[in-house]
Design brief:
432 residues; Rossmann fold; Arc Repressor Mutant, subunit A; 2 domains; Homeodomain-like_sf
C-alpha cells in the first residue's frame, strides 16, 4: 500500500508557463556535504539516452553568494544563481549545512515562489530543513535522516515527521531520508516521470536496486535521541528505559517516573522526539532484539524475554513489521552475510524448534513443504499479534495514542515504506 498526497490548504498547482517540466534545478549551499549534493547532479545531469533514460536539463544554482565550500575543503562554483529557479519545473535541495542555522531568506523566498507557480520541490536528507523553514512542509508528511528527524519535528511542529520512511512523496513536495535514500527518491522521480523501464535502466547504470525492500530507515535507527533532550527532565526517564529494556514495563510506568499524567507525558515526549512513546518503546525493544540476534546465541524465546516482550509471538510480530523478516530469518541472513554462526550448528536447530521450519525454508530459499509451514507460521503469528495487541499492558496506551493523533497530526503506524501519492488512505504500508 501507499499514500495519497496530503496537501495542506491547497492542491497541486498548474505549472507556470515560464517553467519547463524537463528542467531540474539543484540548489546548493556552502557547507553542504558533497555526496548528497552529487546525487541529483548524477541522476538528472548526465545524458544516458543511449540506455533508454530520457534526458533532463540540469541547472546548478547557488543559494548564496561566493564559492561554495564542501566536503574536504573543495570549492564549487555554480553556473547559475537563484534567478534560474524561475525556469525549473523541479527544484532539488540536496542538503543544508547545519540543522541549527536558518537558510538564507532570499533562497526561501525563491522556493516559496516556485511552489506557488507549480514547481515540484524536493528535499534530500537535511534539505528538508530548508523546505520546512520556507513553510512548504506545514501540514504535510515528511522525512529526513533518522538522526535529525526528532530535531525537525521539534523545531517545526506543524510538519508530520516520520523518521522511519526512506522517502515521502506528497505530490508536489517530496523528502527523503539521509544519504543513499536520496538515490531512492531520485529514482522514484524518474519512475514517476517516465515509467519503471526508464527508472530500471538508470538504476542499472548506477549499479543500485531500482527499489529497496521493506524496512525503511528502521533497520538503521540508533538508540540515540536529539541532544536537546539531555537537559530535559525526561532525559532521566529515557535513560532508565534504555537501561531496563529487559524488564516488562509500559508507558504508564514511564509517565509515573516522570511524575506526569499519561496524556501530558505523551505530549511532552512527542514534542521532544517526534515519536509517540509507545512507538519509541517498541522500537527500542526491537533494536535490542536485533543486536542480541547478531551478537549472541540466545534462542528467539530467550531474546524476547531479554528485551521485555511478553512472549516470542509479540517479538516476532513487531520484528517482522519493523525489519521485514522474522527474527530467525534475520539471524540466518546476518550470519550468512558476515560468515558467523555457532560452531556446533546448534543455533539453527534451536531456531527451527522455536519458530518452525517455515521461516528457514524462506530464508534459505528452499521450497517444498517448507512453504506450507511458512504460511501457517505467519498465520499463527498474525493470530498471536492480535492476542498480543496489549503487549506491555498497552491496550489503554494505544487508544490514548490514537486519540492524540487528531491533536498532533502525527501518525502512529508501525509499518514502514516510502509514502507514494497513489492511494487516498493515510495508512502507510509496505513498498512493492
Amino acid at each position: 500500500m501507499s499514500q495519497e498526497p496530503t496537501h495542506g490548504p491547497g492542491t497541486t498547482r498548474k505549472l507556470a508557463a515560464r517553467r519547463r517540466r524537463e528542467i531540474v534545478a539543484v540548489l546548493l549551499f556552502g557547507g553542504g556535504p558533497i555526496f548528497e549534493s552529487s546525487i541529483p547532479l548524477s541522476v538528472f545531469g548526465i545524458d544516458r539516452q543511449d540506455a533508454g533514460v530520457p534526458r533532463y536539463r540540469l541547472l546548478v544554482c547557488a543559494g548564496e553568494e561566493g564559492p561554495l565550500r564542501t566536503t574536504g575543503g573543495l570549492e564549487l562554483t555554480a553556473p547559475y544563481g537563484l534567478e534560474a529557479l524561475s525556469r525549473a519545473g523541479t527544484i532539488v535541495v540536496p542538503a543544508w549545512r547545519s540543522i541549527t542555522q536558518p537558510p538564507p531568506s532570499a533562497a526561501l523566498d525563491a522556493l516559496r515562489r516556485a511552489h506557488e507557480e507549480g514547481a515540484r520541490i524536493i528535499g534530500l536528507c537535511t534539505g528538508a530543513f530548508v523546505l520546512a523553514a520556507a513553510g512548504l512542509l506545514d501540514g504535510r508528511p515528511a522525512t529526513t535522516h533518522w538522526m535529525y528527524a526528532p530535531t525537525l519535528a521539534k523545531r517545526y511542529p506543524a510538519v508530520h515527521v516520520d523518521p522511519r520512511e526512506l522517502f515521502v512523496d506528497d505530490g508536489d513536495i517530496l523528502t527523503s531520508a539521509g544519504t543513499a535514500a536520496g538515490i531512492d527518491l531520485c529514482l522514484h522521480v524518474v519512475r514517476t516521470d517516465h515509467g519503471a523501464e526508464a527508472a530500471g535502466a538508470l538504476a542499472r547504470r548506477l549499479v543500485v536496486p531500482p527499489r529497496r525492500g521493506n524496512g525503511g530507515q528502521e533497520r538503521y535507527l540508533d538508540r540515540s535521541l536529539p541532544e536537546e533532550i539531555g537537559t530535559d527532565p525526561l532525559a532521566e526517564v529515557v535513560a532508565w528505559a534504555l537501561e531496563h529494556l529487559h524488564e516488562q514495563f509500559d508507558v504508564e510506568t514511564l509517565a509515573a517516573r516522570a511524575y506526569m499524567s499519561r496524556r501530558t507525558f505523551d505530549r511532552r515526549f512527542r514534542s521532544l522526539t517526534g515519536s509517540a512513546p509507545l512507538q519509541w518503546l517498541i522500537t527500542q525493544r526491537v533494536l535490542q532484539a536485533q543486536r542480541l540476534l547478531e551478537t549472541s546465541d540466545y534462542s528467539v524465546d530467550e531474546v524476547a524475554g531479554r528485551c521485555g516482550f511478553r512472549s516470542p509471538v509479540a517479538l516476532r510480530g513487531h520484528f517482522r513489521r519493523q525489519l521485514g523478516a522474522s527474527p530467525a530469518a534475520y539471524r540466518a541472513a546476518y550470519r550468512a552475510r558476515t560468515g558467523g554462526g555457532r560452531p556446533d550448528g546448534g543455533g539453527a536447530a534451536e531456531e527451527r524448534a522455536a519458530e518452525g521450519r517455515g521461516d528457514h525454508a524462506v530464508a534459505d530459499g528452499h521450497g517444498g513443504s517448507g512453504v506450507g509451514h511458512a504460511v501457517r507460521g505467519e498465520r499463527g503469528e498474525r493470530r498471536g499479534e492480535r492476542n498480543e495487541r496489549g503487549d506491555h499492558g498497552e491496550r489503554h496506551g494505544e487508544r490514548s495514542d490514537r486519540s492524540l493523533r487528531s491533536e498532533t497530526g502525527k501518525p502512529d503506524s508501525d509499518t514502514y515504506s516510502p509514502r507514494l501519492p497513489s492511494q487516498r488512505s493515510r495508512t502507510p504500508g509496505r513498498a512493492p
